[in-house]
Design brief:
The complex is a heterodimer of chains A (203) and B (305).
Chain A: H1 5-12, H2 14-25, H3 29-51, H4 54-71, H5 81-103, E1 111-112, E2 115-116, H6 132-150, H7 154-165, H8 170-176, H9 181-199
Antiparallel strand pairs in A: 1-2
Helix pairs in contact in A: 1-3, 2-3, 3-4, 3-5, 4-5, 5-8, 6-9, 7-9, 8-9
Chain B: H1 3-14, H2 20-32, H3 34-51, H4 59-75, H5 91-107, H6 114-126, E1 129-130, E2 138-147, E3 153-161, H7 172-182, H8 187-197, H9 204-216, H10 220-230, H11 237-249, H12 253-265, H13 269-281, H14 285-297
Antiparallel strand pairs in B: 1-2, 2-3
Helix pairs in contact in B: 1-2, 1-3, 2-3, 5-6, 7-8, 8-10, 9-10, 10-12, 11-12, 12-14, 13-14
The chains are: A mainly alpha (203), B mainly alpha (305).
Chain lengths: 203, 305
Amino acid sequence: MASNAAEAVGARLSPQIDSLIRAAQQGDQDAFETLVRTYDQSVLRLAMNLLRSPEEARDVYQEAFLRVYRNLDSFRFDCSFHTWLYRIVTNICLDHLRKRKVRKEEPSVIETTEGPVDRMDGFEEGSAHADPERVAWNHQLRDRIENALGGLTPRERMVFEMRHYEGLRLRNIGEILGTSEEAAKNCLFRATQKMRSELGDFV
Amino acid sequence: MTCDSVLQLIPFYFYGELAPADEDQFEEHLHSCPECAREMERQRAMAAALAARQIEPSTAFLEECREDLAAAIRNGRPDRVLPSPRRSPGLWRLFLNALADSLSGLSRVRAPLGAAALVALGFVAARLTIQSPAADPVFHTVRSVQPDGSGRVQISLDETRRRLVTGRMDDQNIQQLLLAAAQGDNPAARLESFGVLKDRADSSPVRDALLNAIAHDPNPGVRLAALEGLKPVSAEQDVRKVLAQVLLSDDNPAVRMQVVDMLVAHRDDAIVGVLQDLMQKENNNYVRMKSEQALKEMNASIGTF
């Protein structure tokens, strides 16, 4: 499980982050860029893993930080910057997921400008020396995982991604999604139940 | 705690979201109940299976996104074009300006930001662009900055020159560039090149590049784009031969599905054997279904028996 580096950095550097925000609000471009660099890796990772498409992830990244750039003046320090930023990011990602739900499609392969990213790298699929039974099992597991994730609602998917992969606390997730910790908890419970029932005898 | 309540709490225990008192009771129950302990193991196994799915964006991709964002902010619009041409006072002057800007900006946020100041400086320095109206833009990425103590600074930088070439698709030079890009290191450029070349499979160098890509390109997205380009010629024997090889060797189910479609679109006796071979080893249910359906429609048996 990944720990959320940006959140940790944000918490540790809170006074510095606040200073950066104030400087950026006064038009300091460099302060804004430093702010972006503090959080952008985890934003991009969230978008990549949720949307499984580098192009969409790139769009989310740009749209999110442009919104931050344009609306930073309205940030009043009544929540952490991390929460405020993630509200923007999750809203954009949810829009993408909902559109995809309507289109009933999900990119099946991942390309990056640096090279192919085989999302199943960890399964040793296609290795010439892999045990055929193992390869077959991995194939099926992969399909099941994709089906299971595809069967979650956009909101369940978002909560699951933020808790399971990004390591955010449910209280923080609730805050980001504008809901209660309890609602985030229910979402996570439903998501794990669905995942486990879909993965069946694989786990 | 009862088994029912423990089962409800498994995900929250796993994610460390239980209150300490509940956690103690949960663990106590788990020690004495093998059934619930097994369920807990299933939760762990699921997490392990999901771990393999996690993607970490590459540094290069992150840098691209940062550059796009910087360009969008500079240009006042969210796009990914080159920065608008402007006369530059020269690299050294630009660097000094950037340095001065960074330091004055950071002086407003004061002392504890030493590390952040270096990051900000890196960001500004790394996006310096030198351009005159007549010349191609040169992008400098500053790798290191070392003051030598005597007031001089040593800067190590990489230069990339970007050129814009435009032309018609029937221009030989354009085609050669596209073919070079189609075999280059950049998968995005390969994908785009095959997208543009897709109606030109009647030209022999293009067809060779497309066949080479479906057989050897490491990126499944590029292989799919190349397959798309081969559709108009998928009835031809040399193409079908490569398609059959790809069907039996490609590790990506989306690619195999596309190949089955292309082969069965022009049925011949040779594909029966290929599909039967496929049925012996295919693990993906959708590909199996497609192949099985095609064999049925051709009144062929599913296996070779």
